[in-house]
């Protein structure tokens, strides 16, 4: 079951500048950075409990965020719904015809299980579903 | 001060279909529809407290959402930060050089005061700031 909006992600070309923007200009609390090697993405989180703003930036200049920035430019990148049973949610959505970017969930930021629904399946929106890991 | 992520908005070409999607497929609670004549926008809200998913659709086929759908297609449209003092936040951001789409806040959905920051001022993201009205 979907229980919360876990986070909303923004693709940014200059991670340091954008971290400074959301801290200094918008007054948000900076939780920290985390590189997700499997996704070739550097992330930075600003909690607004129970949700967060996540900045995403290409790790080492490559990967899907590099492609997104090149094709579409900086901007809103995806939203993430939190699930209390990701396998059940994925199975239900697959049965309804939703296409996913991978066969099964993998390990994402914060040690959570994550999977992405193809934007074509959902009004052009890249939707992530995650289930927090034990350390969350 | 920014106190919460008030909502995240998705521009959709078929409001009824998308309402059904988020209710039936994602299991979200549908709060209701509201037409905002001043913004030429039909809205539908799905609360995930303290935030919401807002679907936005052109009211009577025209207005800014019609332009967005034509230019960029369906997808993530804006995020909205909730403020406890919108005039103070706007003044602070203006002093830092942020450009706004209007001079001062106007009345938006849920009887709140709302104003939008130009996407060029903020990593390509259309950011709304709102302050809930008395009826919220």
UniProtKB/TrEMBL annotation, chains A, B:
PROSITE patterns: VOC
Keyword set, alphabetical order: Isomerase, Metal-binding
Coiled coil ranges: none
Sequence ranges assigned to domain VOC in this UniProt record: 4-132
GO biological process: L-methylmalonyl-CoA metabolic process
Pfam families named in the record: Glyoxalase_4
Keyword Isomerase included in the entry's annotation: yes
EC numbers for this chain: 5.1.99.1
CDD domains: MMCE
An example Gene Ontology molecular-function term: methylmalonyl-CoA epimerase activity
The family this protein is said to belong to: Belongs to the methylmalonyl-CoA epimerase family.
Annotated protein name in UniProt: Methylmalonyl-CoA epimerase
Underlying gene: mce
